[in-house]
Amino acid sequence: MKPNPVVWFEIYVQDMVRAQRFYENVFQCKLQTLDAPEGEAHDMQMLSFPGDNVTAYGAAGALVRMQGVPSGGGGTLVYFACDDCAVEQGRVEAAGGKVFKPKFSIAPHGHIALVVDTEGNCIGLHSMS
User: Fold this and answer.
1) Cα gap 67→81, rounded to integer Å
2) Where are the beta strands (DSSP E) in the chain?
3) Of 17-31, 47-61, 74-88, where does the model show the most confidence?
4) Are strands 60-66 and 44-48 parallel, antiparallel or unpaired?
5) Which residues of 95-111 are buried (b: 16+ CB within 10 A; e: fewer)?
6) Is residue 41's pLDDT more than 70?
7) Tell me, what's the pLDDT at 20?
């Protein structure tokens, strides 16, 4: 396996408009429409997070609405990089989500907060400060 093996992630949603509003408000970004794989267009809708696979560290990913795939708690947790995770955490409830665990130290690896989006998915917020 290569170092930093994760190259892509998908967060499954049931209501794409609601989920898009949540993520764009919390992360102050614009999600982009991504074409579904050939043959899947009728069953799948995708919006990608801003990404730079050439010069930036980390994996790119998308919100995905796919028939037959539920959203909600699973066993995998995706962490989003932040300058100060308390800032994004502070936007969660106004965007319709919930704070599960407010910002706390994971010294010497920085700080994290755990939040739940509008679709029931738990995501992590990470910052060094």
Assistant:
1) 29
2) 8-12, 32-34, 44-48, 60-66, 79-81, 98-105, 111-116, 122-127
3) 17-31
4) antiparallel
5) bbbeeeeebeeeeeeeb
6) no
7) 98
**DSSP 3-state assignment of 97?**
coil
Please report, to the nearest 10 degrees, the dihedral formed by the alpha carbons of residues 65, 44, 48, 69 taken in order. 40
* Number of H-type helices and E-type strands within the chain: 2, 8
- As beta bridge partners, residue 99 has 115
pTM here? 0.91
Tokens for 33, please give them: 């429409």
Nearest to 15 by CA among 55, 78, 70: 70
Q: How many CB atoms lie within 10 A of CB 80?
A: 18
Kind and range of the H or E run holding 24: helix 16-27
